[in-house]
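Exam revision sheet. Question 4 asks you to relate a sequence to its structure. Input first:
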Amino acid sequence: MRVLVAEDERDLADLVALGLRRHAMAVDVAYDGLAASERLAVNDYDVLVLDRDLPGRHGDVLCRDLVRSGARTRVLMLTAAASVPERVAGLSIGADDYLPKPFDYTELVARVQALGRRSQVPLPPVLERHGIVLDTHRLQVSRDGRFLRLSLKEYAVLEVLMRANGSVVSAETLLESAWDEHADPFTTVVRVIISRLRAKLGDPPCIRTVPGAGYLL
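Answer key, structure tokens:
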């Protein structure tokens, strides 16, 4: 899952991003509305965690523009204003969910995960393919009853491949889905993670390389 955190309180933004990354999400951070707008224009995000009172470009404007563009990105709006009228106003401009500050971090993660599922093709929380069982709630993977110890990046790549349901996934799509904006598209990081996954998944081999196209499960 790819997430953009748009929050001008830098410590809070970095803390939220760090926590989401611990749940196998690829997270970019913008500290003002203009930077958030630039990232939304060039990246395809599943969820936008949006502080309503952003400098540079107000969160309301960002939310309205995103909705008008027809993007699949879901919006979780954050604000210090917790009154019912404020929440109604935030939802009325197109936000999918609303969370007042201060918030419980576990609730924030759960809401981001729920919105991320809504931004994709609906699938059950537990995915099963070729004896592989991937639990998106617990971030756990097993194959033929054998628990697999995957890194967060390995887990994220495997989830993308399983969600594709047998379709080819390009290396570019894997980079876009499982890495943040700091990933170098000219490195071999995708091939390295695929190689590690193959080793951990064991026999029979289940990840196939399609020359010139990508990978499929």
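Marking note for examiners. The mean pLDDT is 89.
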